[in-house]
Specification:
The chain contains 2 helices and no strands. With 98 residues, it is an all-alpha fold. Among the domains are: 30 residues, no CATH class; 38 residues. The termini are far apart. The chain binds zinc ion (ZN). Zinc ion binds next to loops.
């Protein structure tokens, strides 16, 4: 049975796309500014906090650690190259002496 009032605007609102137990999308109205309904993670206070420290397990991939690793790697390669240069110089010197 049709509603007495115009409910078109209400039905135009964004819908929750969460998968239900029978595999179809939830389709309940999404909480404003979010993509999910109040029962599927759209509720106030749900989701990870900003700058979530709970998501950090070991820090191996933090921006800081990655840039440190790159700097160390660069230094190591430079050192290796410099050592090879010195070795070549030494070889050359020994050759000149004999
Ligand atoms: Zn939902």
């Amino acid at each position: 049975m049709a509603h007495k009032r115009n409910t078109a605007a209400m039905h135009q609102s964004p819908r929750c796309g969460a998968q239900t137990r029978n595999g179809t999308p939830c389709q309940a109205p999404a909480v404003s500014g979010r993509k999910r309904c109040r029962m599927h993670g759209g509720a106030k206070g749900s989701g990870a906090p900003k700058g979530n420290q709970n998501a950090l397990k070991h820090g191996r991939y933090t921006r800081e650690h990655v840039s440190t690793k790159r700097a160390v790697r660069r230094q190591r390669l430079e050192t290796r190259a410099r050592l090879a240069e010195l070795k070549d110089l030494r070889k050359q010197k020994d050759k000149d002496r004999s």
